[in-house]
Structures are given as structure tokens and as C-alpha cells.
From TrEMBL, chain A:
Pfam families: MetW (PF07021). This is Methionine biosynthesis MetW. Signal peptide: none annotated. The lineage of its organism: Bacteria, Pseudomonadati, Pseudomonadota, Alphaproteobacteria, Rhodospirillales. CDD domains: AdoMet_MTases.
Length: 220, 385
């Protein structure tokens, strides 16, 4: 894929404003999900997305979360969540068990991102992945001008206590999908103001997108 | 002895007799009937009969879970969980608990009279399994006209029954909560049970299981069995916190075999109060039922197969300090449920109390139960509280 390839944007990201209580990137993910489907949210945290999907999209939602405290909070609010590690525990699920496998702001914290992506596209008819874009101008500026590891709204933790071990840029992600045969159906860059932009110019998106959000097609 | 047939005949609660016309087939191949199931209910069954929660009790538990126990006078074993405004809210749910088959609290067991002879069964009572216990519970649920239980819930042996319910009658169960349990009894667990059984059978008063007909009771053996089992219910941390190496009512060692240490005195007390409420042969039969339990073995060695296509919503709970049914046993069940894409939640609760944690005041555990049930109630159309 050439660097500035135009991705098919037949279904452009809706510009719906997020209701109070749900983050813009989670709202964008929710908008990609058809109501009444089966969704596995990996790294579901406190269950904000799952709760929204269950109550506003009538989704049959399940979650997996690494922190036991997060799991307990989710279950106590009536969500179906297990303690589990994306790197190891996705292997237990059968092929195409879910309509959507969601990995929001978690890919960069996995040990083997490619293996996790392969599991996502195996388990889900579609996979939805979002991550902080390490190619964003502010990150580049931080490292380039300051000579220090970036601290930004999407990368708020210091280098020594961040869970993120495999940071990438939007361009890197494109490249990984291309070389691994993972089909991208939709690609969105979210700018610093939380505005979603369909990715038409990879160069611009990589510079201006604070987060990347991708809808991937399942295999088989 | 407070738990005599005469005392049991006067216990409060409901009783129903099954297998009069058609005996119930057991896993052992024997057909049992007639037999009695004794149970207690709390709360009210709604018009649609959609709010029933069946609680399955543990090895030495019984149906008196949320009231003063009629024999011991102590609070019910789950009185912090079952009641108005509690996690199993009796203002919303109809909660019932039946004494297990083979038990000694009103449901037919080895201490009850064999209809063929009029004398206590003793070892003539057929060996029962967890599946047999669940079969008897299902007859009760049928009898009450409940098509689908809202939830089946239980800890330890009760958790095994929950798994058996979900595997054998998935269409009769909306949600299932197996707590601190396993899909099979481990070799170590069987070993501990064997120690208890041997203690009972080594007591001269056991009389080959015929002690009731001979007017005797193997209370020393049963007491030792209880002491050994009780250690497995606690953690080292809990024992240490409670007793350490503190001495009991003395300032020096006696250099003898009195209960010098508080922990010894505690275990002796546990043993001696247990024999007042429990029958020795029932202990043999029920521990055997747990030992035989192996849900995967019944499904060609695949635990996932036991749950293929299930629509039951599961919530598994384990406790960090439980070494009798450790978290890894629950995770095996979770993995099997994931393998069939079942709807499953799994919570590990931080507690150093040991296996007994599910019987204690552990707020996070109670929040989990209440939250899971509230979520299920919403899906079942019972409304969010």
C-alpha cells in the first residue's frame, strides 16, 4: 500500500457527539457496532464501553480485563467480564465466536501485538482496534525538541511506570496489517480535539491523529 | 445426640416425598424410592415463577441457611447473604435450599429407615453422586412448578451441584454461580476425605455402619473427621491470625496431650459440636459423592463439551486464600466456558480466610453476587433494582 493510499470510506465515521460519560473514542467504537450483535471487549477496564453497548446497543457483551479490581467492578455492575490476559487467554475462544472483538487502547500494552491481532481477527467477524498514535506531532515534538519520552493526553504515564511496551504509529499499524494480510475496512484518525477524520492521507493522519481507530475484517 | 430421627421428624420446613410410584434411577444403577426431600424457602415466588433462586449447600451445610438453626441454635450459614436487602434479596427473589440426597437434615439418607425393613439404611443406602443430588433437586423444582430457575448458586460442593445443573439441565437454568469449587475433585481433596472416612470407620462405635440399630454413635471418629476437614477450610494465615501458637487457659506447656494450644482446643470444639448435628454415615456418603464428581469425565474428557451451546449466564467466584479449591480450578472452568463462547464472568476475591471465605462477611464477594444477579434480573425481565 502506498504511503498516502486512500482507504475505502464508503461508510464514514459518524460525527455523533459523545453523550456525557463515555469517551469520544469509545463512542466512535460503539458507532461502528451494529445493535444486537455479540461483542468481546478485550481490556475493557471499568466496563464503560461494555455498559454503553449493553444498554444502548442491545449488545450481547462480554469483557476481558487484566486487573482484578477492574473485573470485580464490572461484574458488580452486572457486566459479564472475566479476568484474563490478551496475550495468552484469547486462545481459549473458538473461531468467529463474536461479531466484534474490540481492543481499545490496549494493543500497545500487549507482549505480542501481531499475535493478538491475529487472535482478534480469528475470534471476531470484525475486529476494532484503537491505540495512541506515536507519530502525532506533539509526540514527535516532545522527543525531538525536548529529548525526553513524550507525555501527552493519550500517553500520560512516565516512561518508567507505563504499561505500554509496544508503541506504534498509525503508519506502522498500516504497514503491519499490510504485511500480515490483515484487511482494514475502515481507518479513522482522532485529533487532539477528539474529532474523527477518515484517513485519506496517511502522512497527515499520522501527523495530526492523536489516536488511530481501525475496523479490521475477520479471517475465514 | 440432638440429631436423632425423632428430632429430624420435627424439624421446621417443607417436605415432599418422591419416587413412590416410580423410583428415581441413581448413577450407581440402583433405583431409589420412595424418598423425602426437605427444604426451606425465603421470599415469594412471583406469578410467572421466574424469580426462583436455588441455593445448593456445601458438604456439612443444610437447608437452614437464613434462619436460626433448629438444632444448633446458631445463625444460618448464609444469613449475611440471603434476606431482605441482601445480595440474594428475598424482597425480590424466591430463594430455596433443599437438604441433599444422602443428608441427615430431613432429606433421605443412610440414617433414615429403609422402607423395605423399617430400620435405618446404614450401609444399605445406595451410594449417591452429585448428579443424583441434582436429580432429586430437579424433582423438587418440577414439583413446585418452576419451569426455569432464575439462578442456581452454591459454594464448594454446592458449586459442584451448580455446574451439574448447568451441564445437565441448561434449559432449566437462566444463570449459574459456582463458588469456590471445581469441575472435579482433586487427588488431594480425595485424600483428605479418605482420612475423614477412615477416622469414622476406625471408631469401634461405628459397628460396620450399623451403629443406629445398635444404639451407638461413632462420635469420636466423626469428630476427628471434622477436625481434619476443618483445617482444609481455613488458610495458614487465618489459623495464625486467630490462634498463632497461643496457649489455652494456661501459661505453660503441660508436657502432655491436653489441648495446650488454642488451635487444638478450637478444633476439638469444632469436632464435638459437629457430632451433635451430623450423622457419621451421611458424612461417608456425601464425601464419596464429592470424590466421584468429574464433569469432564462424563463428557468424553472434555469439560467444554459439558457446556456446548449453553445459554446459561455464568459467574464464577474464587478466593485467593483458598487452597482446597484454588483459583486455578475456577479458571479451568472459565477456559472451558470460553471455548464454547458461553456468557461467563469470573471474579477472584482477595481474602486470606481460606476456603471458608464464601461463608464469611466478605463485602466485595457480596457486591459481586448482588451485581451479577441485578444484571441477570435485567436480562430476565425482572427489572433493575
Amino acid at each position: 500500500m502506498p504511503a498516502d493510499a486512500v482507504i475505502d470510506q464508503a461508510a464514514t465515521a459518524p460525527a455523533a457527539a459523545a453523550p456525557a460519560g463515555i469517551r469520544i473514542d469509545l463512542q466512535l467504537i460503539a458507532d461502528m457496532i451494529r445493535p444486537g450483535t455479540r461483542v468481546l471487549d478485550i481490556g475493557c477496564g471499568d466496563g464503560a464501553l461494555l455498559d454503553y453497548l449493553v444498554h444502548f446497543r442491545q449488545v450481547d457483551g462480554r469483557g476481558m480485563e487484566l486487573s482484578q479490581a477492574g473485573v470485580n467492578a464490572c461484574v458488580a455492575q452486572g457486566l459479564s467480564v472475566i479476568q484474563g490476559d490478551a496475550d495468552t487467554d484469547l486462545a481459549h475462544y473458538p473461531d468467529r465466536a463474536f461479531d466484534y472483538a474490540v481492543l481499545s487502547q490496549t494493543l500497545q500494552a500487549t507482549h505480542n501485538p501481531l499475535a493478538v491481532l491475529r487472535q482478534l481477527t480469528r475470534i471476531g467477524q470484525r475486529a476494532i482496534v484503537s491505540f495512541p498514535n506515536f507519530g502525532h506531532w506533539r509526540v514527535r515534538w516532545h522527543l525531538g525538541a525536548m529529548g525526553r519520552m513524550p507525555l501527552t493526553p493519550t500517553l500520560p504515564a512516565s516512561w518508567y511506570d507505563t504499561p505500554n511496551i509496544h508503541l506504534c504509529t498509525i503508519r506502522d499499524f498500516f504497514e503491519l496489517c499490510r504485511s500480515s494480510g490483515i484487511a482494514i475496512e475502515r481507518a479513522i484518525a482522532i485529533d487532539a480535539k477528539g474529532r474523527p477524520r477518515p484517513i485519506r492521507s496517511l502522512q497527515l493522519a499520522n501527523l495530526l491523529g492523536e489516536q488511530g481507530l481501525f475496523l479490521l475484517k475477520g479471517r475465514g | 445426640m440432638r440429631n436423632s430421627p425423632e428430632v429430624r421428624a420435627r424439624l421446621p420446613g417443607e417436605r415432599v416425598v418422591f419416587g413412590r410410584d416410580q423410583p428415581m434411577p441413581l448413577d450407581s444403577g440402583v433405583a431409589l424410592g420412595p424418598f423425602t426431600v426437605a427444604y426451606r424457602t425465603y421470599g415469594r415466588l412471583n406469578a410467572e415463577k421466574s424469580n426462583a433462586i436455588l441455593v445448593c449447600h456445601a458438604l456439612t451445610g443444610d437447608q437452614f441457611m437464613a434462619e436460626t438453626h433448629p438444632i444448633t441454635g446458631k445463625p444460618g450459614w448464609w444469613d449475611q447473604v440471603v434476606g431482605p436487602g441482601l445480595p440474594l434479596d428475598t424482597d425480590r427473589y424466591f430463594v430455596l435450599c433443599a437438604n441433599v440426597l444422602g443428608g441427615c437434615m430431613g432429606t433421605t439418607g443412610p440414617s433414615d429407615p429403609d422402607p423395605a425393613t423399617g430400620k435405618p439404611y446404614g450401609l444399605q443406602f445406595p451410594v449417591v453422586t452429585i448428579a443424583d443430588m441434582v436429580r432429586a433437586q430437579k424433582l423438587l423444582i418440577d414439583h413446585l412448578g418452576i419451569g426455569k430457575l432464575f439462578c442456581v448458586i452454591g459454594g464448594s460442593m454446592g458449586g459442584m451441584q451448580v455446574l451439574q445443573w448447568a451441564a445437565a439441565y441448561p434449559e432449566r437454568v437462566f444463570a449459574a454461580v459456582p463458588i469456590a469449587c471445581a469441575a472435579r475433585h482433586s487427588a488431594q481433596n480425595i485424600a483428605f476425605h479418605e482420612v475423614g472416612r477412615q477416622a469414622i470407620m476406625a471408631d469401634p462405635d461405628w459397628c460396620g455402619g450399623d451403629y443406629l440399630n445398635q444404639g451407638r454413635n461413632p462420635s469420636r471418629g466423626l469428630s476427628v473427621a471434622r477436625m481434619a476437614a476443618h483445617i482444609t477450610y481455613l488458610s495458614e494465615a487465618a489459623l495464625h491470625r486467630k490462634f498463632g501458637r497461643n496457649l489455652q487457659d494456661r501459661s505453660q506447656l503441660t508436657y502432655g496431650f491436653e489441648a495446650d494450644f488454642q488451635v487444638e482446643s478450637y478444633l476439638r470444639h469444632q469436632g464435638s459440636t459437629f457430632v451433635d448435628r451430623f450423622d457419621a454415615n451421611a458424612y461417608l456418603y456425601i464425601t464419596r459423592a464429592m470424590d466421584y464428581f468429574d464433569l469432564a469425565a462424563e463428557h468424553e474428557g472434555s469439560l467444554a463439551k459439558a457446556f456446548q451451546g449453553t445459554a446459561v449466564r455464568f459467574c464464577l467466584v474464587s478466593f485467593t486464600g483458598d487452597w482446597l479449591f484454588p483459583t486455578r480450578e475456577s479458571k479451568l472452568i472459565v477456559n472451558a466456558l470460553n471455548a464454547v463462547a458461553a456468557n461467563v464472568s469470573f471474579v477472584e476475591i482477595e481474602s486470606d480466610a481460606g476456603h471458608d471465605a464464601f461463608l464469611l462477611d466478605v463485602p466485595e464477594f457480596h457486591r459481586t453476587l448482588a451485581g451479577f444477579l441485578a444484571g441477570c434480573a435485567e436480562h430476565r425481565g425482572l427489572g433493575r433494582s
